[in-house]
Amino acid sequence: MTTVQKSRLNKKFYFLADRLKFLNHLDKEIKLSYERAKRKKLKYTVRLNGTSDLPFERYRLENGKNLMDNNPHVQFVDYTKVTNRLDKKNKIPKNYDLTYSQAENNLDDVKKILKTKYNIATVFRKKLPKKWLGRKVINGDKHDLRHLDPKKVVVGLIAKGRAIKNFNGFVQDV
Prior knowledge:
Blueprint: H1 3-17, H2 19-39, E1 45-47, H3 67-70, E2 75-80, E3 96-101, H4 107-113, E4 120-124, E5 131-132, E6 135-139, E7 154-158, E8 171-172
Helix pairs in contact: 1-2
């Protein structure tokens, strides 16, 4: 395993062994990084799920708040393949921007998300179309600050690495 893989695995075990302690530790790290960014006159954005799809909006700290409510000056962004996270019943904090991810097996769910305000990230093989599933496509490779994207768009990403040779339906051909 690489050091990055070991680090991810250690964080996973930490989260599973003591979620509350993990969340409180993460909260302290977010606050420290926010203050550092503020001193440099930078805005601070956090992506919590790099390789997971955990509903951080539902996890509570010792004070009963989630990470987003406990850090109202921090912008949080994530991708998700879990449709009920985007359900109107679930209150997503204002400073938490979620983008739905199209996969090889979730076209029916994508069609449901098309009826909402949420953006959909889709991977394309060689070039981005102007429209996908009736929505305007924007270039998602320009940046990862999804909260800056207009609403109701498809965030188009060009396949990279192993995804270039993926033909199971994850990568879309146009």
